[in-house]
Amino acid sequence: MRTVLIISIIGWCSFAPLAGATDVPAGDVFGQWTPLGSPYRILGDITVPAGQQLTLLPGVDVIFQGDYRLTALGTIQANGSAVNPVQFRALSGNWAGVRLENTMQLSQFHYCRIEDAAIAINSVNSPVRIENCEFWDNTKAIHVFGVGNATPPPVTIRHCHIENCQQNGIFIVENSNTLIDSCEITQCALDQAPRGAIQISNQSPNGSCNPTIRGSHIHHNVWQGITAFDVTGQGNIAPLVEGNRIEYNYTGVYLLYASGEFRENQIQHNFQAGNPNSGAGVMVGGNTSEPLFVRNVITGNFTGFYFVNGASANLGDLVNDYPGDDGENHIFGNVDPDGDVWSVYNDSVADIMAENNRWDSEDFEEIALTIFDHNDDASKGTVDFDPIFDGGVGVEPVQVTTTPQVTQLLGNYPNPFNPRTTIHFQISEADAGQPVQLRLYDVQGRLQKTLLDHQSFGAGQYQLSVEASDLPSGTYLYRFVCGQTQISRMMTVLK
Description:
Blueprint: E1 12-14, E2 22-24, E3 27-33, E4 40-42, E5 46-48, E6 53-56, E7 61-64, E8 69-72, E9 75-79, E10 86-90, E11 95-100, E12 107-110, E13 112-115, E14 117-124, E15 128-131, E16 134-136, E17 140-145, E18 155-158, E19 161-163, E20 170-173, E21 178-181, E22 184-186, E23 196-202, E24 212-214, E25 217-219, E26 224-230, E27 240-242, E28 245-247, E29 251-256, E30 261-263, E31 266-268, E32 280-285, E33 292-294, E34 297-299, E35 303-308, E36 314-316, E37 330-332, E38 344-347, E39 352-354, H1 364-368, E40 371-372, E41 383-384, E42 393-398, E43 408-413, E44 420-427, E45 435-442, E46 447-456, E47 460-467, E48 474-482, E49 485-493
Parallel strand pairs: 1-3, 2-4, 3-5, 3-6, 4-7, 5-8, 6-9, 7-10, 8-11, 9-12, 10-13, 11-14, 12-15, 13-16, 14-17, 15-18, 16-19, 17-20, 18-21, 19-22, 20-23, 21-24, 22-25, 23-26, 24-27, 25-28, 26-29, 27-30, 28-31, 29-32, 30-33, 31-34, 32-35, 34-37, 35-38, 36-39, 38-40, 39-41
Antiparallel strand pairs: 42-47, 43-44, 44-47, 45-46, 45-48, 48-49
């Protein structure tokens, strides 16, 4: 083995040695790290100076020999490949992680594997793009900090896998310019402290935190899938959460003095067996909370929605003129350990608008039995669920053992049918969060129904129930579009 050590008063710059490991002492680093110099053994805290860049090529292995940190006052470009990722890890125990402090210039991490860190990547008011990366066995995988910045820098986290975090997978503090897209986040909060796999926080009276979380799979976490908490109590948190699959957590979504828009998510099977205190698909607390839920599937939890401490929500409102809050959620099959079905449990004094949704039944009295509100306790608010959704179309997830690799229209059954059939389709991980359009045409090409109009879904299989009692007998074409996938099939109405 051969060790190369280059030290100067302006910093430490690594160029490719002929072969072998490279020892990197504490101090400044910049230039290019290559596979020929790999592994790079970090012997102390290192810093990329302002105005400099550290580039890591595919296949570079960075091994921290102790609890040291890589800080970027300049920028980092860690560009691995699917075959040869850039790796950051500890020799033993843990290392401190990567800290980004450049407030203007973009750092990038592509195809990296980062493990054993206290905070794997910590963006401190610093723009960063993190794509196709894996995070394993960190205390916290990604921390995004934007306190005091009215225009926080863009932070993009896309197609990443985060697993085995002692604390959060992603913690966002007052950065509304953060995008989490098509990620998988699992096995977080292993320290058993109550926290979200994705945690959204506002800590300042004049702050806000409104990130976008799209097309991700958030599952099998010890506590909440997503937690949003405004510690000021002012309700200055309003994320956009769409097309995600949130399942097998202690609680699916927990909002405390927080609101936001939740569209086309599957929030299902969130509970801990044997723990009756777990099991809310969505839990909302605090009198400044009033989130919006549209076209979500809420099923398999102990309780679909649970409201406390003055919280309210809009689960569907046909009274106002705004077309974007018309409900169309499917809330069904939420059964507690005693066998009681709870679609909405309103332990809050506030009223809940829940119009135009699908429930376990189409009978109003049967629906009312699954709702706890003013009718059960006069001190609680009322849940207004009249009218129920009568659109004839409902999307439900189908349990599968593996994530689909290909987006596909699988067909419909029965076929021929009268008056109802079920269309089956699947969304791949690559197309998770992509808008889906599904339209029904007659044989002359005339549009008869829009079954799905640019709704987003997480990766998985789905079934869509179609009511065709208003259509005459005949053969029809249904066309499915998702990303680059376009598929058409035939169905026959036989009366």
